[in-house]
Amino acid sequence: MSLRLRLTLWYSGILALTMLLFGIVLYFLLNFFLYDQIRQDVKKEAVISAGRIQTSYVLSKKGLTLDLELEGRDFISTNTFLQLYNVLLKSYNRSENLQNYNQTLPLSQAVIDKLQTEAGFFEKTKFLNQDILIYYLGIRDDKSNLIGVMQSAVPIGSYERTAVILRYTLIIWAILTIIVAASLGWFLARKALKPIERVIYAADQIGSGDDLEKRIYYDGPLDEIGRLTNTINGMLSRIQITYVELDEAYRAQRRFVSDASHELRTPLTTIRGNVDLLEKMWKQTSGTQTLATPDQVQMSLEAMHDIAGEAQRMSRLVNDLLALARADAGVIMEKSMVEFKPLVQEVARRAQLLEHTAEWQVGELDALEDAMVLGNRDYLQQLLFIFIENAFKYTPAGTVRLEAIRTESFIGIRISDTGIGMDKEDIPHIFDRFYRADLSRGVTTGTGLGLSIAKWIIDEHDGSVEVTTRKDEGSTFLIWLPANFPHAI
């Protein structure tokens, strides 16, 4: 059963119950007040008429005689019947309208017996083929003995018909109201739930395809359905962003694996070729007394040198991959307060021992005086060496310069070169893993992991890096790290 049908049935059921209770209460209230007025009038007429009864004693054995004075009232127009019954004489005294009908109001012995204990009561009965309401009032002597019965009656057929018409009118009106309300409720439920159908349709479209850009159109008020639609649209936006990020991460992972495989395959190929060469030379000289020629010795030395170099290269690559794997795994870096100036001086001294063809210059480092950095000493040294080695690599001729600056709460290490520089399109990607500008591919060696590791170290130290570069003119990297200056004035 659909939600729309359930809502319609619920609303119709509640309305039907409400109409039923309302109709019953209205019917009984109207019926009560209507009959209550009739009963009051009939009882009042009986009491007034009983007050006008004349009594006389007859010397005969018949006893007390009761006469009813009607004072010439027109009971035909009022349609009220009066009848006085003498219990002792068993005689009747009737109003003129009853005399015209030549009928007496019904009076049974049970009524007389009941009036022995009660002052009066009402009874609904049939008279002259119509419904009448009779009020019986007991007439008593000085000793409270019942000597007569005063009957006041009025036809209630018109009131009964009115009550029946009212009852059927309420029933028909309730049925029509329920039908109209159910139809209107079905229409309104369909209109109110239409956005939910759009939600279902959009979800089906997204579930059956890859179109995560689809959104649910809603132009209604910001009610529960409006907020639900906005929430689902927001959720779809977040899912789309997450999907795009996962897709980019998956492509980056595939590129990472591909590049890592490529970088590892080159030294492995070199090592394998040199091992095959050494094996071939060993087979040529083994089992004979012939010594290796100088050329063979030289080739062997070169092969072993190549093997050692490529193995060292592979070791660096594996270490870099291990560092990035630790970064991805969320390894917490151990930190302590590090005096930064001696660290930079040590890096500057050791940097001149690195292989380079450019001129190495160390500028002013006074800005680092008393600077304390919360960080890891080894990783901070690695960070500086990565940028210096990178500058040496891409500066075949010219200068590479190291200098320091400071602000109120940061220190900056500027490493600039006059090397080959980069295009501005390459800047957003230089910290991506295995990324190397097209200009440098095939010209300089490297894995493309150094700057990725450097960026991770900077992020772990809550720092930042600024890059300024121009093609064929050089690049400048400015590394900012938060610092304290406890002894500053």
UniProtKB/TrEMBL annotation:
It catalyses: ATP + protein L-histidine = ADP + protein N-phospho-L-histidine. Residues 190-244 form the HAMP domain. InterPro entries: HAMP_dom (IPR003660), HATPase_C_sf (IPR036890), HATPase_dom (IPR003594), His_kinase_dom (IPR005467), HisK_dim/P_dom (IPR003661), HisK_dim/P_sf (IPR036097), Sig_transdc_His_kin-like_C (IPR004358), TCS_sensor_his_kinase (IPR050428). It holds the Pfam family HAMP. One of its GO terms (molecular function) is phosphorelay sensor kinase activity. Keywords: ATP-binding, Cell membrane, Kinase, Membrane, Nucleotide-binding, Phosphoprotein, Transferase, Transmembrane, Transmembrane helix, Two-component regulatory system. GO terms for cellular component: plasma membrane. It is found in: Cell membrane. It is a multi-pass membrane protein. The keyword Zinc does not apply. It comes from Paenibacillus pectinilyticus. This is histidine kinase. The chain crosses the membrane at residues 12-34, 168-189. PROSITE patterns: HAMP (PS50885), HIS_KIN (PS50109). Its EC number is 2.7.13.3. Residues 259-485 form the Histidine kinase domain.
